[in-house]
## 1
Amino acid sequence: MRSDTLLYIRACAMTLLLAACVSGDPIDAPEPQPQRIDMPISITIPASDALTRAPGDPGLSTSLMLPRLVYLYLIYNLSTDGTGTDIVEKYNYVLTPEKWVKETYSGSLRAEDDEVWRYTGNLSISIPETRYNGRVYAAVSYAPLTVSNDSPTTEQEVKDLTFDVSTTELQQHLGDLYSTPYNYLGTGTKYYGTIANFASKVPSVDLMLYHVAAKVDVIWNVADGVQPGNRITQVAATGLKQRACYLFRPTENEWTTDDDGTHYDSYFATDPGTQWLGRHPFYVIPWQYPAGHVNGEGKMDVSVRFRTNNQHTAGYGYTVTYRNDLAAQKALHPDMLIFVPWLRGQVNFTTDIPTAGSPGMTIDVQ
């Protein structure tokens, strides 16, 4: 009898315990997560030299490759008045080359009626169902990028992202890197990557991305009278910026003491068709001398070395400095504060090409 009583008491205790577990609040339960929806992203890059950027984005020439990687940064706020803490989310995707389609641009940016490449593959990011004040920063590249901060937590940290031109692949494909300039307003008063309909049920964003590297368009001509003994065998852009290059602030790089010790060269070997008359674009990170520099604040120098058949020692050649006064250009073209410059200049050799050790020359280019 006593045994039956103990069994009954234990059964009642278990019933009460189970009831408490069911009716009480769970211990350490995770907070409900907000519902999320997919927002489609449309990205476009220039396809021709006609794109109306000041003084002109070089576009995607036949020597460039279509990007195969995309880096997206979404910044949004969960408070209705925008006073809450911004949330940053990063998305990386591999692009399908066949999904790039060439078309005529029609939209609100200044590329109206210009040819562009638009990515038509499925590209989207997951966003909370309730959100406010959305902005997207985007970059596309052919070569992989390693940025300075893999987990930015504020919009300013996204704007300040830098990368090093540290791999041969990136050096060779620097012209295939595009991004959304942080200070481009488009036709409005806000950053052009702001999502106007972000709080609606069907948000989307359509972005035009622009070159991160400046184009140095080198043209050379060896006069007929000096051609037999003066063949250009190699053209090189030397001493190029390599460290801490801005991804979303491409016109705000400065040459620092670190750059004095860490830089790289880019080479172009001529052939029989270009040894006397030729043209080659070098894509380089744009930069300018800081205040107080001996070469002048706001100026950008790119050294271009011409090596001839008479110069057999590596590194020898005649150097021409392409100098761009960015400060002056910005005064004439306010858009230069946003878009990278396009430096074009022709070097005419009308006498024997000087040998190494000559003082070289400087040409001012636009």
## 2
Amino acid sequence: MHTRLIKPDTQQLPKELEARFYSAIGKFIDSYGWFDYNLGLQISFWHSGSQLDVRKYLTTDSHLKTRLDVLKQMINRSTNRVSEVEQSEYEQWVANVDAIRALRNEYAHGRWIHSKPTADDDGQMTFLPLQWSAGGNAERPPLPTLLSELEAQATQISKLTAQMSTVIVPFLELRARG
């Protein structure tokens, strides 16, 4: 029995939009890699007082979620007093990281198709989650996404990387007890 392979149809996508799409996806993945790398550096730097053996979490076969969970453990063990603003900023940062991590996992395993041109020439792509009709799980709907939204998601990852030290330092730095 022979199964026909289905290839993406890139003929529908105008060349400028195709270039923008691949640029945005590439930036998303690259920014995610830099975020993960910097998260590992932060864990490596701050772990000394945490009494956690972090070496096993700083390997290529461990996942970002695992490293994020380790960071959360380190922060939960912190005895530093932090302000409500610092606590809120940290919690918002973690929520944003979790949302981007979920998107990355979806994007890495799904497919994209060109939907239709939009009035402002901001191409609309449709993300199709990885699923098969025989999978037994509830079917997940396609997710229409403007190229500008995908580009903004990639930029958000860079911002989360830049915010990383700001939101974790209050919890992990040594402070004089008073």
